[in-house]
Amino acid sequence: MSDLSPRALGTVLSSLEAAPGGLYGILDAARDPGLFPWIESCREEKQSLFDGTAAIELEEQAPYLLRFSPGSSALRELVFECWGASCGVFLSSPAAFPEVRKHLRRFLKVEFEGEGEVYFRFYDPRILRAFLPSCTSQQACEIFGPITAFHTEGEDGESLLSHGLRGGLVTAAVKELSR
Predict the structure, then answer these.
(1) In the prediction, which pLDDT does 1 show?
(2) What pTM was computed for the model?
(3) Which segments of 9-158 are extended strands (E)?
(4) Domain membership flag for residue 1
(5) Domain range for 99
(6) In whole numbers, what is the pLDDT of the chain averaged over residues?
(7) Secondary element (H or E) of residue 128
(8) Pick from 43, 119, 126: nearest CA to 87
(9) N or C: the chain end with fewer CB closer than 10 Å?
(10) 88-93 and 22-28 as β-strands: parallel, antiparallel, unpaired?
(11) Does residue 63 contact residue 48 with C-beta atoms inside 8 Å?
(12) Residue 100, Cα to own-chain centre: how many angstroms?
């Protein structure tokens, strides 16, 4: 449960619901043992970002893409229960679920010099908040693709950050939330 007031959490919810295009969430089931059962029971369109044996072996720790329907009670529940716990990120896109999933899967692993391929947990708001502002124009265009905005909790959970792309540059809008 978030430390924010119901009014502040309502601001987060209404801001996410007002985001243009379809609203998606990437939830990190590894962040909280109660999140995977919640994802399983959720009635929204959803699928693991992992495929093949990883999807089976890491089922309870995988990142899951969800598409929230307008007025979603699942979105409300998620915001009111998980905001500030770094359980995932939200994104806006007019693209269909399969296209968004395919796009996001491209970023699950990255090549590190001398390290080989490693998982890139871009769906962790703490990582995405640091990564997006550091992107080159080319990187930003690649990661955004069909996505119009990424929405994350601020560092202390007391703000909503929305990152967009304008002219190849990452932009950020901050909405401060009152406790």
Answers:
(1) 58
(2) 0.94
(3) 22-28, 45-48, 63-68, 88-93, 109-112, 116-119, 149-153
(4) no
(5) 6-176
(6) 93
(7) helix 125-134
(8) 126
(9) C
(10) antiparallel
(11) yes
(12) 12
